[in-house]
Amino acid sequence: MEGLMAPRAPGCGRGLAEFTHSYTYFTSHGCNVTVASPAGGAGAPDPQGFVFYANDPLTQALVAKRPDGSPYVPATEATVAVASVSDQDLEEYDIVFFVGGTGAMWDFINNTDIGRIVRRMWEGDKVVSAVCHGPMALVQATLSDGSRFLDGKVLTGFSNAEEEVLGPVNVCVFCFPGNEAAGCPVGFSPANCTGPHMPTEYYAQGSFLLEDGIKGAGAVYVSTEQNWKTFYYRPHVVRHGRLVTGQNPGAGWETAEAAFDAHRLLGRRGCPVSSQFADVFCSPIQQTATDPPVKCKTTGYIPSC
């Protein structure tokens, strides 16, 4: 099976664990993975990820050190530019998986090649998946008939509530160890950075938020309550037919698993690949009270066909 993974402003990039966890899932399950990025070449992760996931074994298994001691991910050092992925190439892929991270809020906006990939994969009866801010790749996508890709679909992604918390907790992506030259105080802590904060000052489009963008594209957005006392992202995954999305950085592995399951369902159970399955499945975590309560079933990712 073939899979295609696609993830700039200073101090941001793809979500490190979103990539390492999903990449590890796909490769450990026999997938041949092509890592792509908007510009090609070395794809930069959010540098804070190397701090946050320093003790995460799945992440550290893919991290190496340069001669100067700085960390990097060899698997993302020679990414394929999305513009070079032809429509004919896409016929060889079964899944497209968009890694999130704050960089997606720049790189996935108004990117015609990403929109083309989404359209061709979907209309080719393939699985389209994304995690955290990765669904930004879907917000502006359209189908061949001109309709919005997300119209009527059910999905998740990084929530407004998480953005509100992430701003003061992450403080400023420009502030990370060794980046004092960008205006971060020496010996900074999350309490003393005075740089831009998310969400209103951080993203390229001001107060634009992913959740709002998803809803504005005609989709039904669902999310889960998070326990911020521990500042641990609880993985939440929604599968609506061949569309699979994960809510936050904690869902990289689970979103990849659900995407792989959706692919296996299409290939092994004889489901009609040209239609969306009737049911929507979500992780069994309490949903946000304001979300549509009847849209999710928590009995599993895969129904009987």
From TrEMBL:
InterPro entries: Class_I_gatase-like (IPR029062), DJ-1/PfpI (IPR002818), Prot/Nucl_acid_deglycase (IPR050325). One of its GO terms (cellular component) is cytoplasm. Residues 18-148 form the DJ-1/PfpI domain. GO terms for biological process: methylglyoxal catabolic process to D-lactate via S-lactoyl-glutathione. Keywords: Lyase, Stress response. GO terms for molecular function: glyoxalase III activity. PANTHER family: GLUTATHIONE-INDEPENDENT GLYOXALASE HSP31-RELATED, PROTEIN/NUCLEIC ACID DEGLYCASE DJ-1-RELATED. Belongs to the peptidase C56 family. HSP31-like subfamily. This is DJ-1/PfpI domain-containing protein. It comes from Edaphochlamys debaryana. The lineage of its organism: Eukaryota, Viridiplantae, Chlorophyta, core chlorophytes, Chlorophyceae.
